[in-house]
Design goal:
The protein has 333 residues and is α/β, with parallel strands linked by helices. It is built from eight helices and 14 strands. The strands form four sheets. Strands 5-6-10-7-11-14-12-13 form an eight-stranded mixed beta sheet, with helices on both faces. Helix 3 crosses helix 8.
């Protein structure tokens, strides 16, 4: 997550052994979404758990990784961890290897990218990118002897969500469209990882349908009637479609997000610029519920794992519904 200066204040912005797969309940219910939309919502069993989320977070935000600064030994360990998880989950590399070497950063730096091919002979040629940045800012000026900016909320939390979604789809094979799972580096250096990847994919004429980005999901929203917001809320109908598949008011509108231009301050933005398709960030940071942005206090101990596991479980039918819809129902406004 990068810094945003506005009106004299320093603001925060959104730059966020093999495991047994739980079967989903095939029974479904008819749910009404916003403005009368209806969809068959699968009654999905709880897939992830507090324990699974906590295990991933405990490693990615550990002192061993020293804040995952781009080009550091710590982020190399994080990259290896993500690669191993993709291998376990049955996610093959999108490129020749999982590593997409950045062309716009002076040190060796890598996006980690895997793909699950769609199972529909026609729709598999349409792609969805599901992403989050896995870098942070490394070590900083000490506070009470602690100098590691662990980056639990920013953005081990978003990385964890993408890894759990990858685990679900990697062995479930439940997607008609093809899914690209991308963990971006150098977000904290100016969105460089997503900028590099979006540019190259556009040049390769990827048929991109939508980009779904995850950022700062570690703490719950306060006094809201929804559980997440998306940046660029009014740029497409993604919130409406998401709520349809969630079977409730999962996604809402946070005016602060628009006021401070958060849409263009995370890894969704370059996909929007390059492709002109719906590309948004899901988030639960609202400027009031987290005080440790780019500080040593962004620790696992500050995270709400019950909230995180609940959000990930609720996002599964959303991503699955979007991936399996017969038509491209997400439209730019």
């Amino acid at each position: 997550m990068k810094s945003l200066f506005s009106y004299g204040y320093l603001l925060l912005f959104l730059a966020c052994g093999p495991t047994k797969i739980v079967e989903t309940d095939s029974e479904s219910i008819l749910s009404s979404g916003p403005e009368g939309l209806k969809a068959e919502i699968p009654k999905t069993a709880e897939f992830t758990s507090v324990q699974k989320v906590e295990a991933i977070m405990n490693y990615l935000a550990s002192d061993e990784l020293k804040g995952r600064d781009t080009g550091s030994e710590g982020i190399e360990l994080a990259a290896q961890y993500i690669e191993k998880r993709f291998e376990e989950y049955g996610i093959p590399p999108y490129y020749e290897t999982y590593r997409d070497t950045l062309s716009n950063f002076r040190k060796p730096a890598y996006n980690i990218v895997g793909m699950v091919e769609g199972n529909d002979p026609i729709l598999k040629d349409e792609f969805m990118v599901i992403g989050a940045h896995y870098d942070h800012i490394g070590t900083i000026k000490p506070e009470n002897g602690d100098y590691i900016a662990n980056g639990a909320n920013d953005n081990a939390s978003g990385t964890t969500a993408v890894l759990e979604l990858a685990r679900y789809f990697g062995k479930g094979k439940s997607n008609k469209r093809s899914l690209i799972f991308a963990l971006f580096s150098a977000e904290e250096k100016g969105l460089l990882g997503s900028k590099h990847m979006a540019k190259n994919m556009k040049e390769a004429e990827l048929n991109l349908y939508v980009m779904l980005n995850f950022e700062m999901l570690g703490v719950s929203l306060r006094s809201k009637k929804y559980e997440l917001f998306i940046t660029g809320y009014h740029k497409s109908n993604l919130a409406e479609v998401s709520n349809k598949y969630a079977g409730g008011n999962l996604i809402g509108y946070l005016p602060t997000s628009k006021n401070y231009g958060l849409f263009q301050r995370s890894d969704n933005y370059d996909f929007y610029k390059e492709f002109g398709v719906p590309a948004h960030t899901y988030c639960t940071f609202d400027f009031t519920n987290f005080s440790f942005y780019h500080k040593v206090g962004d620790e696992v101990s500050e995270m709400n794992f019950e909230h995180m596991s609940r959000v990930i479980n609720k996002m599964i039918p959303v991503v699955e519904g979007i991936a399996n819809a017969e038509t491209q129902e997400i439209k730019m406004n």
